[in-house]
Amino acid sequence: MTEEKDDIGISKREHLKDYTTTARSEYSESSLKTIKLMVNGATYALMEGRDIKPHHTLLYTLRETLNLTGTKISCDYGGCGRCVVLIDGKPALSCLLLSVDCIGKNITTIEGLCLEGKLDPVQQAFFDYSALQCGICTPSQILEIKALLEKYPKPTEDQIREAISPTICRCGGPYKLVVEAILAIAEADYKNG
Ligand code: FES
Ligand code: FES
């Protein structure tokens, strides 16, 4: 059987052979480097080129590779604030960060707040005050409040509103209830839970 060749005399089979050889060698297990990401106190070893690629955002890695879907994807370009995580304790938009730039940093997602089945005081306050509707913006707001309380254990109403202002609530925003919830836990001495 003769092989079909294109105008410049290369057969499809030869072309595919080259392609698959390159692809295999690029991703062969032995040549892959391990990249470690610290998320919620655990270290994840990810294979560079297979699990984690240079263009992967932190949001993508968290949701698609680590299956931590508590961090929400919405606009995916830094406009809505619904993908907030804490990087070394500070709120950051995970859709604007490359995963490889987060090596060596402590990443906290909403999943990291609930330890041994017990809600974090901020999560509990949101629940007790029904300070959410659909909940898409809630993980971001909770993490923004966590960072705020670390800095100001007894924040003012303005500080609370400012802290959650980067996150747009499409449901109209139970902002008043968020403020009430956080003022209440601050009053009860947040640091002591
Ligand atoms: S998904 Fe990151 S800011 Fe909208
Ligand atoms: S509660 Fe639905 S987007 Fe905020």
Automatic annotation (TrEMBL):
InterPro entries: 2Fe-2S-bd (IPR002888), 2Fe-2S-bd_dom_sf (IPR036884), 2Fe-2S_ferredoxin-like_sf (IPR036010), 2Fe-2S_ferredoxin-type (IPR001041), Beta-grasp_dom_sf (IPR012675), Diverse_Oxidoreductases (IPR051452)
Source species, domain of life: Bacteria
Annotated ranges, domain 2Fe-2S ferredoxin-type: 33-113
One GO MF term: metal ion binding
PROSITE patterns: 2FE2S_FER_2
Keyword line: 2Fe-2S, Iron, Iron-sulfur, Metal-binding, Oxidoreductase
Name the UniProt record assigns to this protein: Aerobic-type carbon monoxide dehydrogenase, small subunit CoxS/CutS-like protein
Naturally occurring in which organism (per UniProt): uncultured Desulfobacterium sp
